[in-house]
Amino acid sequence: MGSNGLLGMCDRPLYNEPVITIGRVGACGEIHRTTGPAWISDNALVVQGGENCDQTFLYYVLKSTDFSAIIGGTTQPLITQTAVKALPMLLPPLAEQKSIAAVLGALDDKIELNRRMNATLEAMARALFQSWFVDFDPVRAKLDGRPPAALDPATAALFPDSFQDSSLGPIPKGWEVRSLDKTAHYLNGLALQKYPPGDGPTLPVIKIAQLRKGDSTGADRCNTELPPNYIVQDGDVLFSWSGSLEVELWCGGPGALNQHLFKVTSPEFPKWFYYLWTLYHLDEFRLIAADKATTMGHIQRGHLTAANVLIPPLQLLDAMTRTMAPLIDQLIANRIQSRTLATLRDTLLPKLLSGELSVKDATLINDFD
Asked: What's the CA gap between 193 and 258, in Å, rounded?
């Protein structure tokens, strides 16, 4: 196994073939891989290995490289081409590089498959929600004397065949209008600097940045002596009400709920129901926050009260849950599995490079089907 510097730095802006880039300014050390023709700005370095270096292997090595020691700059973080070129890199024989890349690539392929599956699941859940609660497709079909599409007869029978007047205009007969904050509980997070880490166990602090990227890597830490309600678990619905407004199903592991985030729960309604209703109002909330963006845009609890929810009778809600809950549960399970696979991938690489683990052993471990 040899040790070479990183070779083949290029500065052409247009690349017709897939390339690996390293963030050079600002987002220093961030590694990306293009999938086709791309223009590369001068804020990134393009890395191409020599003839004895497999590009996929190189990508994984760079992903595991700590660039902090070579980050400079006086006004903003900066990595120079010279500093990156000087970094040593363990280089096994080409055949071994390809084998290592294949093991790690299989994990990434499964992660990407999960991502595509989740995009489909999310689209299905949103489409059903739109059909049932916004367009009232099953009610309109029955009103016209047609069987509702894509519903089993038992569920279709639970939808009414007429409308009633309400504060929102015509809604399905027998349904109720309720405010969002009377449908679910929106627990605001804590100022977690009051719970500094000590010598005991700690939790990552879940802030807006963690919510947006979906994990707690690099997060601040706090101690665990906070009320249990403020501990976030996989599958919890989180809603950032200030700054960048987002509604997400958190799947980044246990953490502590920071201020400017709501943890959304309900003892009365299923998760899919209050998740999709909060998501439904998100664009409206973002517009409200944008109007208040002289400092940092946000919404207030009064906006939760003003947001309306339609509630069907319990028997119909239970039937809806039998369709919706599996979609949301599978989405959460896929995200958790992807996090586990990413951790496995990042753990395997140094062990494979050092020889502590063979490719054959890694292949046995990498049995996630």
From this structure: 9
**Segment 260-274, tens digit of pLDDT:** 999 999 999 999 999
Residue-range definition of the domain harbouring residue 24 = 1-91
Q: Give the CATH number of the domain where residue 35 resides.
A: 3.90.220.20
Residue 339's pLDDT band (boundaries 50, 70, 90)? very high
- pLDDT tens for each residue of 287-338: 999 886 556 789 999 999 999 999 999 999 999 999 999 999 999 999 999 9
> What percent of the chain shows pLDDT beyond 90?
67
pTM for the full predicted model: 0.88
Considering the domain architecture, whether residues 135 and 35 belong to the same structural domain is answered as no
